[in-house]
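Fill in residues.
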């Protein structure tokens, strides 16, 4: 049996706010193996990014509380101190953030920002670090890497900035990459190129990847396994083939129905999921999707379902999954 690289167990992330304590991630569990890409999908406000930031403990420590376990190579990294976490962040576990323009520092060149990651984790001289940074820019497929090395983020295109973020994340050759919507706001051609770059480097380094997205097309393209999140919980967990061929949760079915079809009845109105994701200070009593679900009944409204196993490759959190 393949050993897990990352094992998140019953993770809870809570914030202290003016209106009280809210739990943004509530009992999330999943596993990532080396060479595997796990997709995390759901609408905005479902807890995907908070889950990612929790893994690296990037949230404000004064207002954030973590519970559960985040086991990296068998060690619970929630028990590590600041210095120990700094050795892991960017070195063994790296992250690509959603918006490259706001994630890159506008007053430093692309080269300075990549070499900073190198010198923070590797014993390497400036000249050698510069060469390594240029080599990594070249590996991401960025044009004229020597030139881009000396340019500022505002001087290059969105696609190039995203490639620079990938170079920065991967320059220390991490074991695990967390990609938080890495193709957001990019046109489809650039999206495909970025995903190809990430996939090629994953294969070269045998990395594990957590791919966070709201785009099921990205899930189908690059992921081997997927968890669907809704209001801080995992509501479906399956291999990609099972999820697309036999979705079990009404929310997952709704997400799949929202995908535009290029064949069939062109006059058919695009499907939408009614309502919006509730706020964290107004979490429904029973099933968290019950207020938007066309199949909900009194049991759904009052009793929270558990994540149940359909088979060894598929889990779902729904009272009526076998009847709908």
């Amino acid at each position: 049996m393949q050993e897990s690289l990352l094992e998140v167990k019953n993770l809870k992330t809570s914030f202290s706010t003016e209106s009280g304590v809210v739990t943004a991630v509530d009992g999330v569990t999943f596993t990532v193996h080396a060479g595997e890409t796990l997709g995390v999908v759901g609408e905005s406000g479902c807890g995907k990014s908070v889950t990612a930031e929790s893994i690296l403990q990037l949230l404000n420590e004064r207002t954030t509380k973590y519970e559960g376990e985040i086991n990296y190579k068998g060690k619970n990294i929630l028990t590590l101190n600041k210095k120990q976490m700094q050795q892991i962040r960017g070195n063994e576990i790296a992250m690509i953030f959603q918006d490259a323009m706001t994630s890159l520092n506008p007053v430093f060149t692309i080269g300075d920002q990549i070499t900073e990651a190198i010198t923070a984790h590797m014993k390497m001289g400036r000249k050698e670090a510069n060469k390594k940074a240029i080599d990594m820019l070249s590996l991401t497929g960025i044009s004229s890497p020597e030139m881009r090395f000396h340019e500022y983020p505002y001087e290059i295109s969105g696609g190039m900035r995203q490639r620079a973020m990938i170079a920065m994340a991967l320059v220390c050759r991490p074991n695990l990459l967390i990609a938080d919507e890495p193709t957001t706001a990019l046109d489809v051609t650039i999206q495909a190129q970025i995903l190809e770059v990430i996939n090629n480097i994953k294969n070269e380094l045998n990395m594990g990847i957590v791919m966070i997205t709201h785009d099921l097309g990205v899930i189908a393209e690059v992921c081997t396994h997927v968890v669907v999140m809704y209001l801080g919980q995992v509501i479906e967990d399956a291999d990609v083939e099972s999820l697309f061929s036999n979705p079990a949760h009404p929310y997952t079915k709704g997400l799949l129905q929202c995908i535009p079809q290029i064949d069939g009845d062109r006059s058919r109105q695009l499907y939408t999921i009614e309502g919006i994701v509730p706020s964290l200070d107004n979490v429904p009593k029973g099933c968290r999707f019950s207020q938007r679900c066309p199949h909900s009944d009194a049991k759904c409204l009052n009793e929270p379902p558990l994540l149940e196993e359909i088979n060894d490759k598929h889990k779902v959190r729904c009272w009526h999954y076998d009847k709908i």
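The radius of gyration is 21 Å.
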